[in-house]
Specification:
Gfo/Idh/MocA-like_OxRdtase_N; globular; 328 residues; Dihydrodipicolinate Reductase, domain 2; single chain; alpha/beta; 2 domains; 13 strands; six-stranded parallel sheet; Rossmann fold; 11 helices; 25% strand; Gfo/Idh/MocA family protein; seven-stranded mixed sheet
């Protein structure tokens, strides 16, 4: 039986707790949160002990791994002590608020010989994974241009999201989903230019990424403070041989346009999904704890964080910023 410690009690911790409950030979044995951990453990886990402090959880329970679903700026102080105790870690994106803190986490995991998996769940969504495969297989030729959109509306959310020193705003917390997808698909990013606007609890951000390949990506991230707007994602990737598009509001999951004579498949997903992306992500993490390869390496998490932080810095400075410029 794999023994998991779950940190946090918000939306993502709830999602993960429910998925672990569906898995065989995996048990959440402890939950830690500074607020109401006992209520969370009662509602979402079967036999988990509740702790107000994560370090107390580490020392009281015989853990194989922890799952960190807490605010971004808390990750270092939770991950480093776990690594020092020889505990494997799944850490929700982004790894941390700064490169310095994130690098300490990665170094601690390497020194201890434990697995640290960044929680970039988007890689497990079939529309994104399928398009990445098609791009890598040459379906559009050499990609020249990519666009992504992510709109996540809210009216009430924890105060730390509005504290730029803790969350990094939409360019870090929200846009890093698509930054990681584009970097995973198109390769290393050379420089970033970004703009963002905030008003009345809303935030709109746009980042332009220049990839080392010469491709250009446009990342549109929106935090509207409105309940009447939908959660929405979209992307397109274009090259000389065709265009791949996705829009979450379109009834067809993927649209393919090609210069080839054969009729392309409109829906590349052959069978209905038996497991959602969160379940697939957690199963991949569990497999890595049991000795398999990590589905996403800590270094990949660092690379995507550097691009998102370059966007944050670019918006502040009003000029392009290379990911390599982003310091501690």
């Amino acid at each position: 039986m794999l023994r998991i410690g779950l940190l946090g009690r918000g939306f993502m911790a709830t999602v993960h707790a429910l998925r672990y409950a569906e898995m065989e030979d995996v048990e959440v044995v402890g939950v830690a949160s500074p607020s109401e951990p006992r209520e969370f453990a009662t509602d979402y886990t079967e036999n988990a002990a509740a702790y107000d402090d994560a370090l107390a959880l580490y020392d009281a329970e015989d853990l194989d791994a922890i799952d960190v679903c807490t605010p971004t700026h808390t990750h270092r102080d939770l991950v480093v002590p776990a690594a020092e105790r020889g505990i494997d870690v799944l850490c929700e994106k982004p790894l941390e608020r700064t490169m310095g803190d994130a690098s300490e986490m990665v170094e601690a995991a390497e020194d201890a010989g434990v697995t640290l998996v960044p929680g970039h769940t988007l890689r497990f969504f079939p529309e994104y994974a399928t398009v990445r495969d098609r791009v890598r297989e040459g379906d559009v030729g050499d990609p020249g241009n990519a666009r992504t959109l992510r709109q996540s509306p809210y009216e009430e959310r924890p105060a730390w999201f509005d504290d730029d020193e803790k969350s990094g705003g939409a360019l870090l917390d929200l846009a890093i989903h698509d930054v990681d997808f584009l970097r995973w698909t198109l390769g290393p990013v050379e420089r970033v230019f970004a703009r963002r606007k905030r008003w009345d609890g809303n935030e709109y951000a746009l980042a332009t990424l220049r990839f080392e390949s010469g491709a250009v990506g446009h990342v549109d991230a929106r935090w509207p403070n409105r309940s009447d707007l939908p959660f929405k994602t979209a992307f397109e990737i274009a090259g000389p041989e065709g265009l791949l598009e996705f829009d979450s509001e379109d009834v067809a999951p993927i649209e393919v346009r090609s210069t080839t004579e054969s009729e392309p498949s409109r829906d590349p997903i052959d069978e209905p999904l038996e497991k959602d992306p969160y379940r697939l992500e957690l199963e991949a993490f569990v497999a890595s704890v049991r000795g398999g390869e990590p589905p996403i390496t800590a270094d990949e998490g660092l690379a995507s964080l550097a691009v998102a932080l370059a966007a944050v810095e670019s918006a502040e400075r009003g000029e392009p910023v290379a990911p390599a410029e982003v310091g501690a």
